[in-house]
Amino acid sequence: MYPGHCTVSDTRHTLDNHPKRTFVNTDIQCPLSTPRWAFGAAAPTGCPKSANVRVNPLLGQRMTEIGMASLFNDMQTAIIAQLSLYVSIMSGFLIVSFLVAPRLTRPMVVVVISLFTWLWYVLLMLSYREMASFFGLMGEMRKFREAGKGLAWHSAAYTPAILLDIVPAAWIAFQVIFYAAAVAFFFHCRTRNLTAPIDR
């Protein structure tokens, strides 16, 4: 019994593709007079006799072999998309630097550099979080394989442990160097006036 004379009934479910795995679906029925402290909130309105609280039987279950492999592919696709966006923004800035930098006034230089810096920072945060999560997943896949649960066929499960911590930090260093080089190229083009001279 639960607070307020609640009754609990369990229903067992067996997955068709996993006959040995059985989950329990718990159905908790409580009168509307059940105190708020019983479940942290009052029973839902519009229920004349009882309020039901259903517990998802799949909550708390660890990922399966196919789940990890699918998540790996999804995260890899997301990283490739972010890298494509990053390369597009960097390429655009370098082209602008070569063609337009000598012709920009000082206020426009501030606007262009500020806009580029903001876009670069946003992409840095997004790509780092995705990269760190991606390598964290590979670490879990490695543990999964070493525990004998599967994924022996997946190459990501054999990623050297030293790379799991180095690559995300190296990615930040690479982006900082790339940003500094891009800004330096911008001012180099502006100083050398590689396209057409203008009067200042």
Short key terms for the protein model shown above:
200 residues, alpha+beta, 2 domains, 3-stranded antiparallel β-sheet, 3 helices, 3 strands, 54% helix, 12% strand, elongated, disordered N terminus
The chain-level mean pLDDT equals: 76
Number of helices: 3
Give the count of structural domains. 2
* Number of strand segments: 3
Strand content: 5-15%
Distance between the termini: 85 Å
- Note the overall shape: elongated
- Unreliable spans are 1-5, 21-28, 30-60
Pattern of helices and strands: EEEHHH
Topology:
Elements: E1 7-14, E2 22-31, E3 50-55, H1 65-99, H2 106-146, H3 161-192
Antiparallel strand pairs: 1-2, 2-3
Helix pairs in contact: 1-2, 1-3, 2-3
Structure description:
It is a single chain. With 200 residues, the chain is an alpha+beta fold. Helices cover 54% and strands 12% of the residues. Helix 1 packs antiparallel against helix 2 and helix 2 runs antiparallel to helix 3. 10% of the residues are buried.
Describe the structure concisely:
The chain has 200 residues and is of the alpha+beta class. The chain has two domains: 7-55, no CATH class; 65-192. The chain has three helices and three strands.
